[in-house]
Specification:
The complex is a heterodimer of chains A (355) and B (252). Chain A is of the alpha+beta class. Chain A is built from eleven helices and seven strands. In chain B, α1 packs across α5, α2 runs parallel beside α3 and α2 crosses α7. Classes of the chains: A alpha+beta (355), B alpha/beta (252).
């Protein structure tokens, strides 16, 4: 909401504007007001009631007691209803009914009670009590509405964090990759093939570089490229001539901070969706360079089969963008596009000024 | 001695393929491995060539994946899928009682799968009907759109032939002959690879070496018990339909 904009409707139609759906209310849970609050309210009401009765003429003690208890009881039931569904419509309806009842009472007293002092006490007490009732209900409605909204926001954030953690875990543990690599390793060990030892070294290097990747909020480009290189070495051993790769990082860019695993995910996607499905193999290039405008461009290019149209804006990409945004705000961009000569280009551009 | 059962093994990675071959030698010594394929289009081509009794298919393969190859085989062979843990098809396989082994292949698991397949083969029980399941799994595969244009080099020019205008494709030694409404051309892409790029609704494979645009088929004529031929609209030549594909022409 823009704080400079005046919502004039609040003047005559006061209360929270947001209306929660049943699903939202169920999701937020019906947290009850605490016992302490209920007891405090009751004691305060009793004290106010007692004070009023002390000063009021004793002739109308019975009527005043009934009046105060009636208003308090009505107030509590109305507050309960507003607690369940705190809308300004509901609040306004209840306020109008209360005001109507007050007018009826006042007219009744004016008719039936002749003594102007007693009449004044009765009408005054009813009026002040009704006004307090309105303030209490308004407070309950606004408080409860804020409480539900913040609870929902809390749940949303929690869910997003969980989804992100799941995504990270999935990026970290690629069972298909691990087991396929183990299958190759198993065979080469069984047959005493000389390719076993370097593959084992690369796999170990990959795991060592990847597992701590996700414990940290940021990683340098240099560290990330290390994990990527190990991954590509493993894939190279498995795919043989079907994969050619080249990594070119301008040395001054090594300390550039990146969300961990982001680049690895892009490279894994390029291998999985570009190189591996390609009948005759493909090339993969990872390049990081400083452009003329001071921006850094990190490109993952493959000459593979190219993405099906539906994949270019998939869920994984949205997640990667979100993580990029957490580090760089809106200044960083991630794009995925089909190359006209075949294959896919994934490009991260971001501002970076090492001090 | 009876003739041994034959098998096709398809995996795009060399080491797991070799590992499976070695493991099968122990688990099923009498099995004759007649073909090893390095991708899905090779696997399908090798199936048509050898008609093996059992096919061990890796799921993730270039060209056509294991699911698509199995869909084309369509119950004419026993299929055992080979995949690594983490493949999303596994849940469906478990639910649909599909035979599969996990990589790296474990000799005990392989022995169990082999025993089931062997029992079916020896009792001459047809392969379980997986078409529904395979179709559903295949529909989740995202593919690049089918090719719209074929590029054929003729002398010093490259001619663009619209796929719509192609009448049929035919394997011709190391080339593929493209017969279209405006003439003929030779391209270097093998027929089996073209197959994976074409819209299978429009282009029907009728023989290991022939794919025909169904709009140009005039009639399917049975020559004798084993042979069938296609006659074309507007063209004199006749195209052979091999046994595997004859089921497509049954009359309504």
């Amino acid at each position: 909401m823009n704080p400079d904009r005046i919502d004039w409707s609040q003047v005559w139609y006061s209360g929270p504007t947001r209306v929660f759906s049943d699903a939202e209310l169920a999701r937020a849970g019906d947290e009850r007001p605490s016992r302490t609050l209920a007891v405090t309210v009751l004691i305060n009401l009793a004290i106010i009631g007692q004070a009023v009765l002390q000063w009021a003429p004793s002739a109308i003690t019975a009527q005043l007691t009934a009046l105060l208890i009636g208003i308090a009881a009505a107030g509590l039931t109305q507050a309960k209803a507003l607690w369940r569904q705190p809308t300004r419509r509901s609040l306004t309806l209840r306020t109008l009914v209360a005001a109507g009842l007050f007018v009826l009472f006042a007219l009744g007293f004016k008719w039936r009670v002749d003594d102007p002092l007693l009449r004044g006490w009765l009408i005054g007490t009813a009026g002040v009590a009704t006004l307090m009732l309105y303030l209490a209900l308004w407070f309950v409605t606004v408080y409860r509405s804020h409480q539900i909204a913040s609870r929902l926001r809390e749940l949303d954030e929690h869910e997003r964090a969980l989804a992100m953690a799941r995504q990270l875990a999935a990026a970290q543990i690629q069972p298909h990759f691990i087991f396929n690599t183990l299958a190759a390793l198993q065979h080469w060990v069984d047959t005493g093939d000389a390719r076993a030892a370097p593959l084992l070294t690369s796999l170990t290097g990959y795991l060592r570089a990847t597992l701590p990747l996700f414990d940290r909020a940021q990683l340098t480009l240099g560290e990330e490229v290390d994990a990527v290189r190990r991954y590509l070495e493993v894939m190279q051993a498995r795919l043989g001539a079907r994969l050619h790769f080249e990594i070119a990082i301008e040395p001054p860019l090594q300390p550039l901070p990146l969300p961990p695993g982001l680049l690895l995910t892009l490279v894994e996607n390029a291998v999985e969706h570009g190189v591996q499905p390609s009948l005759h193999g493909a090339e993969l290039h990872l390049r990081a360079q400083r452009a003329a405008d001071g921006q850094v461009a990190i490109d993952v290019t493959d000459s593979g089969v190219g993405l099906p149209a539906a994949v270019t804006e998939g869920l994984g990409l949205r997640n990667s963008r979100e993580r990029l945004r957490q580090v760089f705000g809106d200044a960083a961009h991630l794009s995925l596009q089909r190359r006209p000569e075949g294959g896919t280009l994934a490009r991260i551009t971001l501002p970076w000024n090492p001090s | 001695m009876t003739t041994p059962f034959t098998a096709l093994i398809a995996d795009d990675e060399e080491a797991p393929r070799a590992q499976l071959v070695a493991a099968l030698r122990t688990a099923w010594p009498e099995l004759a491995i007649v073909a090893e394929a390095v991708n899905g289009v090779d696997a399908w081509d090798a199936f048509l060539e050898h008609e093996p009794a059992v096919c061990f298919l890796d799921i993730r393969m270039p060209g056509l994946n294991g699911i698509e190859v199995a869909e084309r085989i369509g119950g004419r062979a026993q299929v055992v899928f080979v995949t690594a843990f983490g493949d999303h098809a596994l849940a469906a396989f478990d639910a649909g009682a599909v035979d599969y082994v996990l990589k790296p292949v474990d000799s005990e698991r392989l022995a169990q799968a082999v025993a089931r397949v062997r029992a079916r083969l020896e009792r001459d029980t047809p392969a379980p009907d997986l078409q529904g399941l395979l179709k559903q799994l295949a529909s989740q595969i995202q593919r690049p759109a089918p090719a719209e244009v074929i590029q054929a080099g003729i002398g010093r020019e490259v001619r663009l032939i619209r796929v719509d205008e192609v009448v049929y494709f035919e394997s011709d030694a190391r080339y593929t002959r493209v017969v279209h409404e405006g003439g003929e051309a030779l391209i270097r892409t093998p027929l089996k690879e073209l197959l994976a790029q074409l819209d299978t609704q429009r282009f029907w494979q009728v023989h290991r070496s022939v794919i025909v645009n169904h709009r140009h088929i005039a009639a399917a004529v049975r020559v004798d018990e084993n042979n069938m031929q296609l006659t074309l609209r507007d063209r004199p030549e006749k195209l052979p339909v091999s046994r595997h594909f004859q089921g497509r022409f049954r009359g309504q």
